[in-house]
Write a structure and sequence with these properties.
The protein has 151 residues and is mainly alpha-helical. Helices cover 57% and strands 5% of the residues. A two-stranded antiparallel ribbon has the order 1-2. Helix 4 runs antiparallel to helix 5. The longest helix has 23 residues.
Length: 151
């Protein structure tokens, strides 16, 4: 350390300490063999232990005999995505009020909202909801009187 600048001596000391830590870590690592497995696991710090544990958990879950839940068949009403079919389901009539339109919107959304259906069926549900909202919005606009403009 003599003949070096202070900065160089600090770098040299840090490198020496780092080498000593690596040597100590190498001595701590032990190779473990699980009786049921033919592979070896290297146990060491917390990261390698958790990585080994998660690998074992994944292997266990992959080999487990739990069957995935069956895929739900698509409800037949989701195939009805034309404007006429959605209008028929809403059954909008001449006697509608704002309250009945709101109730029909809530009722339709309860069964057709994309967030309530499996991922695979959300595109069709979105189309149905857009059509229903468009029809109900138009019906509610027709119910509201036109604004009076006075000069």
């Amino acid at each position: 350390m003599f003949g070096m600048s202070v900065f160089q001596s600090v770098l040299e000391r840090l490198k020496t300490e780092e080498d000593e830590e690596e040597t100590a870590e190498t001595e701590v690592f032990a190779t473990l063999r699980a009786p049921a497995f033919t592979t070896t696991f290297v146990a060491g710090g917390a990261d390698s232990a958790s990585a080994a544990r998660s690998a074992v958990e994944r292997a266990y879950l992959d080999a487990s005999f739990i069957e995935p839940p069956p895929i739900e068949p698509m409800p037949e009403f989701l195939n009805r995505i034309s404007l006429a079919e959605v209008a028929e389901e809403l059954d909008l009539g001449e006697s509608e009020t704002l309250a009945t339109l709101a109730a029909k919107r809530r009722s339709f959304a309860a069964t057709n909202h994309p967030d309530r259906l499996p991922q695979d069926y959300r595109a069709k549900a979105t189309v149905r909801m857009k059509l229903a909202n468009m029809l109900i919005d138009e019906a509610s606009r027709q119910l509201q009187p036109a604004p009076c403009i006075t000069p």
